[in-house]
Amino acid sequence: MFNGRFSLFNVSVWVLTVYLVFHVPLIEMRVDDFEQQALAQAREQPPVSTEKPEPINQHLKLGKCFHMPRSKCPAEPNCTKVGSMSVFCCDLDSARLKEALASSITQNTTYLHVLNATIDELDVSQAMFRRLTSMAFTDGNIDKIVVARKESMDMNTTRQFPKHSSVACLNISNNNLTSAKLQPAIQRPYAYLFNLSVLDASANNLTEFPLSLVHSNRKISVDLSGNRYLPCKNFMKAMEENNSSLVTFLKYRDTYCALDISFNWFKDVRVVQIDHLRIQKEVLNESCRNIKPANINCTCIPERLEFSGDVITNLVAVDCSQRNLTSLPTNLPHNTVKLNVSYNNITSLQTVADDSTYEHLRQLILDHNDIPYILELEGTKFIDNFMLFSIAYNKLKTIHTYVLSNRFYKTGLALLIAGNYINCDCNTEKTLKPWLLENFKNIPDYKLLLCDDKVPVVDLVESQVCHTPRDWTDYIYYIIGLEVLILVLLISKVSYDYWVFKTAGYLPWPANKMPRLPCDWLCE
Predict the structure, then answer these.
(1) Cys-Cys crosslink for 173: which of 117, 133, 202, 296, Cβ 3.0 to 4.6 Å?
(2) How far is the C-alpha of 474 from the C-alpha of 483, rounded, in Å?
(3) Cβ partners under 8 Å of residue 49, min gap 6
(4) How far apart (Å, rounded) are the C-alpha atoms in residues 193 and 132?
(5) Cα 511 to Cα 494: distance, rounded to the nearest angstrom
(6) E strand intervals along 274-381
(7) What residues form the membrane-spanning segments (predicted)?
(8) Which pLDDT score is estimated for 42?
(9) Of 395, 397, 404, 405, which Cα lies nearest the Cα of 428?
(10) Using CA atoms, how far apart are residues 206 and 130, in angstroms rounded to an integer?
(11) Please, how many CA atoms are within 13 Å of residue 410, restricted to the half-sphere of its CB?
(12) DSSP assignments along 66-130, one per residue
C-alpha cells in the first residue's frame, strides 16, 4: 500500500513539472510583451506637462538662437527651466539678473534666452555663461557689454569673450546697442568664440562691422539688419571672393549700410541696400577682365562709393604691380581713380595722355620702373587733378618742375620721388633745390632725391657745382675794373695838366713832350 501511494506521488510530481515547463515561459513572454507595449506607448505619448525645447542644431540651421515668445514669460520668479537644458527669463534688471540666473542655470544648461533685460553692464565672462551654446539677450536695454578685466604681465587688459567659450549662437538683437557699448573693434571681442556660427545683432545702432568674424576663416551667419549706419566698405570686404563663401547675411534684403560721400569740404551719408554692392562688384569684375594687355590678371577693388543722382558709382582701384609690363595698361575700368603699376619695366607715361580711361585717375603709383622723365604728363588731366603721384626708384635724370609747379597750391597732395639719381649741375642747385625746399610739405621724401654721386639734391652747395662759371665771371669783373681805373687816372691827369697850364702858363711833363695834334686848337 505504501508503494502504491509513493508511486502516485511521483506521478503527480512529474505531471506538475511537465506543466510548469510548458506554461511558465509563455506567461513570462506575455508579461514582457505587455511591458514593452507600455514603454512604447509611454514614448509615443509623453506627459503633457513636459515642454522640451527644439534642438539647438535645428535653430542654428534656421539661423537663429534658442528663443521663446513673450507669451511664455514666467511669473515670479522671472526665470524658468524649459526642459532640462534651457532657461528662459523675462523682465530682469541689473540687481536681479545674477541672482535669477544663478538659481536657474545648472551644469546641464546650454541654452539661455533673456527677454527685456535692463542691464547697466553685462559681463559675459562669468562662469555661468561659459557652458552655453546658445545665448540670447533680446528686446531690452543693455548699456554696455563688457568682459571682466584681467591684468596680465605686461599690464594690458583683455577685452574679449572668455577663452574656450562654447557659444555657437549669440543673439544680442534689439538692445539699443551702439559700437561704443560693445568692445572696440581693434580689440577683436569675438576672437575666442571659435564655435560661433550664428550672430544676431539686428535692430541696434551699431556703426562698426565685426571684421574679426570675417578674418576667422569659418562659416558664419550674421544678421545685421536694422543697423543702418554700418560702413559699406566693411560689407564689401566681407563680400570679397575669399570671404563670400564664409559669411552669410541673414535677412539680406533688409540689411543696409552707410555710404560716406565726401567732396572737398562737403560730406554726407547715404544709406543703401547691400545688394547694390553685390551688383557693382559683379560689374567691376567684368570690366577688370577687359584690361589690356590681355591675361595680365590685374586686381580691381572698389576704392570707395559715391552717388551720382540716385545711381551708386564704384570708384575703382586697379593693381597691376609685378606683371612684367613694359608699358602702362589700357582700357581700365570706368571711374578708375587709383592705379598701381609698381615693380614693372615701364619706360613711358604717354598712355596717361592718350587713353581716356585715365581721365578720372587721382593716384598713380609707378615705383620701381624705368621711367626717364615726366614731361609726357604735361597738360594731362591727371597732372591737373592728382592726389598721389609716386615715381620713386625709377631712372629720372631731370625733373621738369614747371610740369608740377601749378599743383602744390592745394594741401593733401603727395609727390614721391625717392631713389632717383639726377644729373646735377649749377642749374639743379639754382632751380630744383629751391623748388624742393619750397614744396617739402607735398614731397615728404624730398631729402632722398640724389645726384649721380649720391649727394642729396637739397645738400648741393653753390660753390661746388657752379665754380667754372664763377671763375670766368670774376676775371671779366677784374678787367672791367682795371679799365675803369685807367680811364679815371687819364681824366685826372688831363684835368691836372690843364689846370697847371692855365695857372702857370706851361705844360707839365709829359704833356710838354707830346707832339702837337690837329685838335689842340680846341684847348687853346
Answers:
(1) 202
(2) 15
(3) none
(4) 12
(5) 9
(6) 299-308, 311-319, 336-340, 363-365
(7) 7-27
(8) 40
(9) 397
(10) 25
(11) 14
(12) ----GGG--SSSSEEEETTTEEEEES-BHHHHHHHHHHH--TT--EEEEES-EES-EETTSGGGT
Closest C-alpha among 152, 147, 171 to residue 67 = 171
Handedness of CA 99, 104, 108, 110 (dihedral sign): negative
Cell of 387: 592726389
Whether 117 and 154 have beta carbons less than 8 Å apart is answered as no
Radius of gyration of the chain (CA): 46
Place of cell 695834334: 517
User: Cβ(158)–Cβ(147) under 8 Å?
Assistant: yes
Amino acid in the structure at residue 514: M
Mean pLDDT, 10 residues at a time, the chain of 524 residues: 53 61 44 41 42 46 77 88 93 90 90 94 83 93 73 40 78 88 54 82 87 72 91 82 76 87 59 85 88 91 71 84 94 93 96 93 96 92 92 94 82 91 91 92 93 92 73 75 93 87 80 69 60
pLDDT of 46: 44
pLDDT of residue 32: 41
Whole-number pLDDT of residue 376: 93
DSSP string computed for 479-520? HHHHHHHHHHHHHHHHHHHHHHHHHHSSPPTTGGGSPP-GGG
Q: According to the model, what pLDDT value does residue 109 have?
A: 93
What the block records as the C-alpha cell of 328 is: 602702362
| Structure confidence at residue 326 (pLDDT) | 94
**8 Å CB contact between 425 and 401:** no
pLDDT of residue 35: 39
Is-contact 52 83, C-beta < 8 A?
yes
pLDDT, residue 157, reads 40
Calpha distance 297→94 (Å, rounded): 57
Amino acid at site 268: D
Whole-number pLDDT of residue 389: 96
Contact of 422 with 397, CB cutoff 8 Å: yes
CA angle 28, 32, 33 (to 5 degrees): 115
Task: Tell me how far apart the alpha carbons of residues 385 and 523 are, in angstroms, rounded to a whole number.
Answer: 76
Q: Please give the angle made by the CA atoms of 204, 205 and 206, to the nearest 5 degrees.
A: 100
The SS3 assignment for 267 reads strand
How far is the C-alpha of 256 from the C-alpha of 312, rounded, in Å?
14
| Cα 458 → chain centroid | 36
Class of residue 74 by CB neighbours under 10 A (exposed 0-12, middle 13-18, buried 19+):
middle
Tell me if residue 334 falls in helix, strand or coil: coil
Q: Could you count the other beta carbons within 10 Å of the beta carbon of residue 189?
A: 21
In angstroms, the CA 6 to CA 30 distance is: 36
What is the Cα–Cα distance from 199 to 189, expressed in whole angstroms? 13
Stated length of the chain:
524
d(C-alpha 167, C-alpha 349), whole Å: 56
